[in-house]
């Protein structure tokens, strides 16, 4: 019986080796169908998308904060008491407001303001600048005021029959 015994031992050893060392079988899900490079590229795209979304949120929050502050300031200014300045009678100046005019003494007579800002001599004719207008002797400043005399550093006005002297 030794022959049968030997054959049985051989078959049992062969079965043991087959069960202990199975041959590797590659399953469908174990393979990497995309590849490592493609996977890395996908990760970079996802990270840039997240960064872009964060930037958009930061911009949206900044705009909201700026709008809120602007609204608050606007309504605070509207509720502040207003300071009104007294109105000066219309002098119908022809000099633009942006031009710097030297300060000259102001004469107020019967509700009208007269400001002499300059005197010059053009070809033998004396010209005075009163309230921003160029006037010569005999010219009317308004309906009731005329230039009577232009002298050296002074002008005499006739206001409803009364003389008014303006000095530079």
What does this protein structure show overall?
- This protein has 168 residues and is of the alpha+beta class.
- Among the domains are: 43 residues; 62 residues, SH3 type barrels.
- The protein has a four-stranded antiparallel beta sheet with strand order 1-2-3-4, with no helix packed on it.
- The model has no long low-confidence stretch (mean pLDDT 78).
Give a short synopsis of this structure:
With 168 residues, the chain is α+β, with helices and mostly antiparallel strands. The chain has helices spanning 2-20, 36-79, and strands spanning 106-109, 112-122, 125-130, 133-135, 140-142, 145-150, 154-159, 162-167. The mean pLDDT is 78.
SSE ordering: HHEEEEEEEE
Q: What's the CATH topology name of the domain at 106-167?
A: SH3 type barrels
Helix content: 25-40%
Total helical segments? 2
Shape: rod-shaped
Largest sheet: 4 strands, antiparallel
Class by SSE composition: alpha+beta
The tally of strands reads 8
Task: State the end-to-end CA separation.
Answer: 151 Å
CA-atom Rg in angstroms: 51 Å
**CATH architecture field of the domain at 106-167:** Roll
Strand order of the largest sheet: 1-2-3-4
In CATH, what is the class of the domain at 106-167? Answer: Mainly Beta
> Which whole number gives the mean pLDDT?
78
Oligomer status: single chain
Unreliable segments of 5+ consecutive residues? none
Question: Beta-strand percentage?
Answer: 25-35%
